[in-house]
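Input record (one chain):
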Amino acid sequence: MKYALFICTPADGEELGPEDLADDPRFTSYVQEVRERGTVIGGARLRPASDATTVRVQGDEVLLGDGPFVESKEYVAGIDIIEVADLDEAIALASRHPAALGGGSVEVRPLWE
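The corresponding structure, as predicted from the sequence alone:
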């Protein structure tokens, strides 16, 4: 089954860029593990929520808002698309993600196939 892992970071936490993650052994060992297993089939690191633009349409008018759609204690910092046998395997993988171990969370959501 395919799942999306929404990697969530505390809104008041330190923003880690790609260079920071490349130097962090927790992230590099996790990335190496999932690459060797071939479970991650796509994904991306996202810029901070403060860089987001929310688009709404009311009638013929396009309304733009700065920041994320919802104010939250956490924001989505990245998305991984994984392919595993079942939800238990997806949860096991998410529970080893450095974000989950470091005060954030990982939302596991099945994809329509």
